[in-house]
């Protein structure tokens, strides 16, 4: 292989990784408790975007650990707490949620991420809404 081809290949792989489009993205979480009068719409950020992955043709020949795909996940996050309005005194009216500060392409950690690639169909309110801008 020519040195020019190898350098072009390395440059292309580097550009693809840096242009992976995995970044914090605005998202609205709808939170409600059965005992409380209102649903809270919380503006936050989550990690979302495209990460370069490879699908191996030799799936049956490789270990499962070699088949894991990279996903857009949290590099740095913090938790914030919101107060759900209209809760009776015997109910804890607080809800804590993650806020993405920075993101990376990497293996999905089920300790703090939902690793399923399906849309959440229950992110809506069944009660009157209050908006919470954090």
Automatic annotation (TrEMBL):
GO terms for cellular component: cytoplasm; extracellular space. SMART domains: GHB. InterPro entries: Cystine-knot_cytokine, Glyco_hormone_CN, Gonadotropin_bsu, Gonadotropin_bsu_CS. Keywords: Disulfide bond, Glycoprotein, Hormone, Secreted, Signal. Pfam families: Cys_knot (PF00007). The keyword Glycoprotein applies. GO terms for biological process: G protein-coupled receptor signaling pathway. Its main location: secreted. Residues 1-18 form the signal peptide. GO terms for molecular function: hormone activity. Residues 21-125 form the Glycoprotein hormone subunit beta domain. It is found in: Secreted. Heterodimer of a common alpha chain and a unique beta chain which confers biological specificity to thyrotropin, lutropin, follitropin and gonadotropin. This is Thyrotropin subunit beta. The lineage of its organism: Eukaryota, Metazoa, Chordata, Craniata, Vertebrata.
């Amino acid at each position: 292989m020519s040195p020019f081809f190898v350098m072009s290949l390395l440059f292309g792989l580097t550009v693809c990784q840096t242009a992976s489009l995995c970044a914090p993205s605005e998202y609205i979480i709808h939170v409600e408790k059965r005992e409380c009068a209102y649903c809270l719409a919380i503006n936050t950020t989550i990690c979302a975007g495209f990460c370069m992955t490879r699908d191996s043709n030799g799936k049956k020949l490789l270990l499962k650990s070699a088949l894991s795909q990279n996903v857009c996940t949290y590099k740095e996050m913090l938790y914030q707490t919101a107060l759900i309005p209209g809760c009776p005194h015997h109910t804890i009216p607080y809800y804590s949620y993650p806020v993405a500060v920075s993101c990376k392409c990497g293996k999905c950690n089920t300790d703090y991420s939902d690793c399923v690639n399906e849309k959440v169909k229950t992110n809506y309110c069944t009660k009157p809404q209050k908006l919470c801008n954090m």
